[in-house]
Write a structure and sequence with these properties.
Elements (H helix, E strand, L loop, with lengths): L1 H16 L8 H8 L8 E6 L8 H10 L8 E9 L6 E8 L7 H5 L5 E3 L6 E3 L9 H5 L6 E2 L6 E2 L16 H5 L5 E5 L6 H8 L15 E4 L9
GO molecular function: 4 iron, 4 sulfur cluster binding; metal ion binding
Keywords: 4Fe-4S, Iron, Iron-sulfur, Metal-binding, Repeat
InterPro entries: 4Fe4S_Fe-S-bd, 4Fe4S_Fe_S_CS, ET_IronSulfur_Cluster-Binding, TAT_signal
Length: about 230
């Protein structure tokens, strides 16, 4: 197995070394991944005004998706404290896969292990095809991919595509959030809670200038909304 993996990497280095880590155009990306127009485009909203940094989402993800210790598919990053005692406050933001429509990780993968699911638009990984070359890790501008120490394959958040979604459940993080700070849904459904919230609130996405078209939205926290 190791010999075949080394042989594969040697044979593909010259090819992949010339691949840009910058995203392709939308038409190119769709042609490469075979994405077709359908009625699903899953996305997530993190309402930072409701997040209390409890990490229930992180632990639920670990349990449901069997994420080994030492790595994580998502994290909640705390900034602060801001203000003066006794009115100090913190902000909490989600760090996880952005499920880009033009995904650099997919563009550079030499084996097709990194792919965009045709039905849902979810960026996912086929561990059986992954050779551990780490090109996707280098290409990801959001620094959210890692090598799973058990499978030895690239790993990351997939919106629980292989676990909860197969059982018609919400992603584990959404189900576990005690303050309902996470909302998951279909961007193509105008009556979904997600779309209604996006229409009713100003939201932000990360690194839009790269043209990746991420599908992780956030309602940004305002001064003093999280007080500890």
């Amino acid at each position: 197995m190791e010999n075949s993996r080394r042989h594969f990497l040697k044979s593909t280095c010259a090819l992949v070394a010339g691949v840009s880590v910058y995203p392709l155009s939308r038409d190119q990306a769709n042609a490469d991944t075979g994405i077709r127009i359908n009625n699903l485009k899953y996305a997530m909203l993190h309402d930072e005004t409701k997040c209390i940094g409890c990490n229930a989402c992180v632990e639920a993800c670990r349990e449901v998706n069997h994420v080994p210790e030492g790595v994580t598919r998502l994290s909640i990053e705390q900034s602060g404290p801001y203000g003066k005692y006794p009115n100090q406050y913190y902000h909490f933001s989600r760090h996880s896969c952005q499920h880009c429509e033009d995904a650099p990780c997919v563009n550079v993968c030499p084996t097709g292990a990194a792919f965009i699911d045709k039905e849902s638009g979810i960026v996912s990984v086929n561990a059986d095809k992954c050779v551990g070359c780490q090109y996707c890790i280098l290409a990801c501008p959001y620094d959210v991919r890692f090598i799973n120490p058990v499978t030895k394959a690239a790993d990351k958040c997939d919106f629980c595509r292989e676990t909860n979604l197969k059982q018609d459940k919400q992603p584990a993080c959404v189900e576990a959030c005690p303050t309902k700070a996470l909302v998951f849904g279909n961007l193509k459904d105008p009556e979904s809670e997600l779309v209604m919230l996006l229409k009713a609130n100003p939201t932000q996405r990360t690194k839009l200038d790269l043209g990746t078209r991420p599908k992780l939205f956030r309602i940004t926290a305002k001064q003093g909304e999280i007080i500890l």
